[in-house]
């Protein structure tokens, strides 16, 4: 029996919003830490604006704030209900979706999600600054991991699981692409900085934002290089936040849906196009044609997967 479109939609977006809350925390952390490495005039604001551009929330921020300082950016990214991608908005939306499908998820998943929202909604934004901001960003990541652990450890491997996992990896792929694009295209347009101390510090932060710093050093024993880092976050299938890893998991979970329902839908073609983009290339080709252009096209194809999935399984 096919799951109701509304239930499938809620499960898909529940997972996406939990992942997005974590990803917003990751983006803010890398933007904040990069701003601390810069002593150039206007450098701090530049990094924070670049981070918001990567998250596509810069226009909404500019409509409400004149200056991009740490406090205003952190508030907008973490607590502003008018920002649909803020951690506050994501956790609220995730909890709303979870409540709508309470009987389709496990008690552990619900308690994890509900507890995270209740605790976060009690935090006073004015109390979150400096070291406390970094502590809160870590808390958001930990609560996302807790929910993901409850999901993987307790839910049946049925069509609901497939929709949840598809949402997770669609969102994660989008975030990894945006983190890479933020660094390579927006933050370093000046070739004189490439290979310098600031460049290396920023690449290190990019790896930390993707929880890939130690794993990178395990695979590559030399110094940080743009080519190797991009390869690690795009084409290494063993790296759980790489684009190829996420694209393969998206297709794997859509294939699971086709087995449950006995046929493939248009979303399978969209997922195949996304996967082909990272399986049928190499870093030399990507850099030759432009990393920024590659990442933009990947994000576009990833969005088409969501659109096709919505149509295929009657999300609307």
From TrEMBL:
Check the record and name the InterPro entries matching this protein: ATP-dep_Glu-Cys_Ligase-2 (IPR051680), DUF403 (IPR007296)
Task: Name the Pfam families on file.
Answer: Alpha-E
Sequence ranges assigned to domain DUF403 in this UniProt record: 3-313
Name the UniProt record assigns to this protein: DUF403 domain-containing protein
Source organism per entry reads Devosia equisanguinis
């Amino acid at each position: 029996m096919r799951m109701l479109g509304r239930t499938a939609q809620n499960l898909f977006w529940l997972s996406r919003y939990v992942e997005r809350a974590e990803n917003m925390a990751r983006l803010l952390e890398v933007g904040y830490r990069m701003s601390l490495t810069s002593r150039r005039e206007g450098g701090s604001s530049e990094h924070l604006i670049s981070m918001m551009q990567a998250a596509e929330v810069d226009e909404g921020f500019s409509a409400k704030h004149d200056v991009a300082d740490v406090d205003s950016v952190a508030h907008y990214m973490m607590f502003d209900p008018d920002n649909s991608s803020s951690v506050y908005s994501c956790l609220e939306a995730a909890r709303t979706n979870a409540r709508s499908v309470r009987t389709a998820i496990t008690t552990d998943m619900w308690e994890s999600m509900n507890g995270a929202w209740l605790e976060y909604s009690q935090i006073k934004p004015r109390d979150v600054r400096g070291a406390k901001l970094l502590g809160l960003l870590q808390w958001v990541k930990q609560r996302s991991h807790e929910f993901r652990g409850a999901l993987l450890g307790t839910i049946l491997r049925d069509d609901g699981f497939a929709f949840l996992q598809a949402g997770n990896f669609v969102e994660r792929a989008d975030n990894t692409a945006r983190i890479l694009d933020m660094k390579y295209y927006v933050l370093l347009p000046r070739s004189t900085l490439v290979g310098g101390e600031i460049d290396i510090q920023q690449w290190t932060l990019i790896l930390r934002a993707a929880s890939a710093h130690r794993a990178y050093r395990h695979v590559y024993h030399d110094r940080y290089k743009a080519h190797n880092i991009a390869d690690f976050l795009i084409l290494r299938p063993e790296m759980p936040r790489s684009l190829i890893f996420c694209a393969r998991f998206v297709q794997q979970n859509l294939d699971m849906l086709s087995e449950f329902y006995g046929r493939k839908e248009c979303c399978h073609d969209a997922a195949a196009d996304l996967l082909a983009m990272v399986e049928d290339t190499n870093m030399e080709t990507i850099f030759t044609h432009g990393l920024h252009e590659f990442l933009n096209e990947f994000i576009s194809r990833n969005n088409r997967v969501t659109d096709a999935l919505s149509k295929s399984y009657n999300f609307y």
